[in-house]
Structure prediction request, 238 residues.
Amino acid sequence: MKSELLTAYFQEAASWDADRVAQANRATSRAWRAAAAGWVCATACAVALAVLMPLKRVEPFVVRVDNSTGIVDVVPVYSGEAGMQQTVTRYFLSHYVSVCERFNFATAESDYEECGAFHAAQRNQAWYALWNPNNPASPLNVHKDGSTVRAQVISVSFFQRASGVTDLAQVRYLTAERSGTGADERITHWIATIQYAYTQPSHDPKVRRWNPLGFKVVELTAEPEILAPSSDQAARTG
Prediction:
């Protein structure tokens, strides 16, 4: 009788131990599955970030406040494709003529490089040929006596082609040449017909400093302007 009770007790104890071992195995299995799921999620997140990283970029923006109305807006970023307002184009044309039609030995090299930053390929070749020291008409030869020239823009007018394209402008300006002896300025009036375009801005920091919007002078033709005599002059000659 005692042996039967002992046998039953040991069997019950063994089943209890077996249940505890099975429970521990199940807990361990669940833990490993949870850990594996966590690693899978972490790996998926890392892959997603790596895929999305090239799409992330920082774009600076400028907030503009209207002085008269107080309206606040964000200035759009220019990418070299949108049309430019005439005010911006007028500035570039005026700046280009003022710099490229003047001459002073102190700033000649810098002016030559700055004007090149605004030139299309064809215009740049003509610019190089003009400034070539072998050219007798080169400003380097014409003004080697120390004379200087300043340019002053008078007006800028825009023209629209029959196709609707607006890429032509006429710039009226004067040049004032002063000889090296310090004599009075000799003033002449000019009309420049300029074909221009906006292209992708240069990646060269030096060029971008002068020309951040990719403005290009495609072709330029300058002619002397014949001014009508003033009423005082007409009275004197009459």
In short: Residues 82 and 198 are 9 Å apart (CA to CA). The first strand starts at residue 62 and ends at 65. Confidence is low (pLDDT under 50) at residues 231-238. Strands lie at 62-65, 72-75, 148-159, 168-178, 186-198, 215-224.
